[in-house]
């Protein structure tokens, strides 16, 4: 391809200097770019190509509160805030793009099997709720009978469940599509095949991003590149230790809708497919394989949760990597050495999408992250070691 | 729509199945999907989400557009299943149920 031709669709030729360049076109970067539109004159979203790790396409799609914030109360409160903003985001996306992202917030369950699991989880929740920074919210331990009133065909092995009214689901693929449709309609430039390989700040404070398609220039940048944020962070003086965590998901064939109360391990989506998940493995970057022992464990637990699923066939399985900072909590920070460069890393790009779009984006646009986000800076990884 | 080609040397054994209770004569070795086409039935299911009519497309196990109920089991791939005497085939209407 050396013949001189008109620039192709991915050519960086004649790109303007953008107000903001968001590095990463997944759910985190997309939510922020979406939310910046009112306050930034021009926005670019730089994405990789088809071989990117893409947690945004491999996730479980929960909008979930009850398991968040053990060890950092502020993360629980931050998550609760996002669950409250979610109806607004869903309504806005529907109005703007015509895409219904299938948000349902009817409450959710963590199913528990046996006294040991119940006691351990109960102690865990009490400890979580007692932490400073947690905004109290309604939750209950249900017995089998109460849980069975929410889950048709609940198996007898599920002897209890933790319930909150705040938990729910969304269709994460429709969510990503809605963001990108909004970009098309509002002039946000989506630039695929623009994996960033270098970042330099000019004397005037602007940034130049090196990409395989040539340089992209922007006055502000947001690093939202998932597991790549560890490498990119270093380029703007931020040391962010990342620790990918593999999750395997088993997909069952579509059925008529049965389950309106999602569980952390089992949900039915808006079009009828069932997702079975919540495995957690330290497997480096091996997201190209699934393992039979893990899938068997997932299937066994799903069938114990709703025995009638034994007759429903598995049609797909995949692995994906959770984007996790070393301690599992979100990271929001503006670089001290490279002002104008912001870094955003979190595991829950679906749950936090509403807060990222409606709350975090305006903060980034204003140029400073308020004190309430201090909990989420990388300083927590670098306490004095002397 | 579809017309059988000559079967060549040996005449295949006739097989009788039912489709939604109606008898359909076909031949040993046919897949259920081929038997449906030969019997003039092009749409064997309605989709799970919108309820639009669908029929066999790829004939090789990939597209999942030929799902039918077979002998009481929903969502069977018609193109990957050979006809048997007495087989009861049903149109797959939307998504299957979970029998809780």
TrEMBL record, chain A:
Q: Does the keyword DNA-binding apply?
A: no
A Pfam family cross-referenced in the UniProt record is DAO
At the top level, the lineage of the source is: Bacteria
Q: Name one GO cellular component term.
A: cytoplasm
Q: Which UniProt keywords apply?
A: Oxidoreductase
Please tell me whether the keyword Zinc is annotated for this protein.
Answer: no
Start and end residues of each FAD dependent oxidoreductase domain: 19-360
UniProt GO molecular function: oxidoreductase activity
PANTHER family xref list? FAD-DEPENDENT OXIDOREDUCTASE DOMAIN-CONTAINING PROTEIN 1, SARCOSINE DEHYDROGENASE-RELATED
Could you identify this protein by its name? FAD-dependent oxidoreductase
Automatic annotation (TrEMBL), chain B:
Q: Which Pfam families does the record cross-reference, listed alphabetically?
A: Fer2_4
* Keyword Oxidoreductase belongs to the record: yes
| Provenance organism | Xylophilus rhododendri
Q: What is this protein called?
A: (2Fe-2S)-binding protein
A molecular-function term among this protein's GO annotations: oxidoreductase activity
Report which superkingdom the organism of origin falls in: Bacteria
Keywords from UniProt, A to Z, are: Oxidoreductase
């Amino acid at each position: 391809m050396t013949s001189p031709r008109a620039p192709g669709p991915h050519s960086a030729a004649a790109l303007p200097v953008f107000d903001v360049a968001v590095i990463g076109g997944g759910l985190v970067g997309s939510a922020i770019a979406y939310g910046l539109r009112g306050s930034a004159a021009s926005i670019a979203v730089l994405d990789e190509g088809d071989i990117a790790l893409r947690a945004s396409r491999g996730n479980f799609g929960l909008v979930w509160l009850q398991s968040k914030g053990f060890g950092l109360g502020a993360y629980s409160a931050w998550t609760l805030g996002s669950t409250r903003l979610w109806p607004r985001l869903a309504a806005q996306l529907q109005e703007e793009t015509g895409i219904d992202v299938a948000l349902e917030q009817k409450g959710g369950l963590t199913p528990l099997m046996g006294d040991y699991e119940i006691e351990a989880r109960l102690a865990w929740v009490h400890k979580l709720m007692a932490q400073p920074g947690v905004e109290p919210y309604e939750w209950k331990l249900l017995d089998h009978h109460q849980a069975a009133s929410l889950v048709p065909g609940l198996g007898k092995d599920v002897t209890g469940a933790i319930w909150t009214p705040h938990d729910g689901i969304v269709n994460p693929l429709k969510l990503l599509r809605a963001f990108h449709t909004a970009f098309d309609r509002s002039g946000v430039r989506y630039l695929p095949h623009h994996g960033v390989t270098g970042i330099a700040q000019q004397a005037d404070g602007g940034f130049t991003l090196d990409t395989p398609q040539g340089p992209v220039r922007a006055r502000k940048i947001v690093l939202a590149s998932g597991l790549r944020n560890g490498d990119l962070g270093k380029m703007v003086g931020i040391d962010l230790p990342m620790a990918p965590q593999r999750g395997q998901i088993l997909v069952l064939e579509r059925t008529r809708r049965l389950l309106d109360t999602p569980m952390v391990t089992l949900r039915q989506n808006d079009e009828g497919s069932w997702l079975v998940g919540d495995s957690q493995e330290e497997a480096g970057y091996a997201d190209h394989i699934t393992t039979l022992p893990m899938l068997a464990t997932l299937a066994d637990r799903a069938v114990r949760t709703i025995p009638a699923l034994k007759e429903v066939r598995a049609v797909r399985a995949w692995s994906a990597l959770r984007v996790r900072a070393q301690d599992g909590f979100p990271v929001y920070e503006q670089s001290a050495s490279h002002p104008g460069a912001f870094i955003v890393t979190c595991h829950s790009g679906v749950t936090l999408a509403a807060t990222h779009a409606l709350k975090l984006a305006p903060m980034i646009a204003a140029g400073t992250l308020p004190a309430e986000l201090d909990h989420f800076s990388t300083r927590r990884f670098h306490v004095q070691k002397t | 729509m579809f017309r059988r080609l000559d079967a060549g040397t040996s005449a295949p054994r006739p097989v009788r199945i039912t489709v939604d209770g109606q008898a359909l004569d076909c031949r040993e070795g046919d897949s259920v999907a081929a038997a449906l086409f030969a019997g003039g039935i092009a749409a064997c299911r309605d989709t799970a989400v919108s309820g639009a009519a669908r029929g066999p497309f790829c004939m090789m196990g990939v597209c999942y557009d030929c799902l039918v109920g077979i002998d009481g089991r929903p969502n069977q791939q018609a193109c990957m299943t050979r006809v048997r005497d007495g087989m009861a085939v049903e149109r797959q209407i939307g998504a299957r149920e979970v029998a809780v």
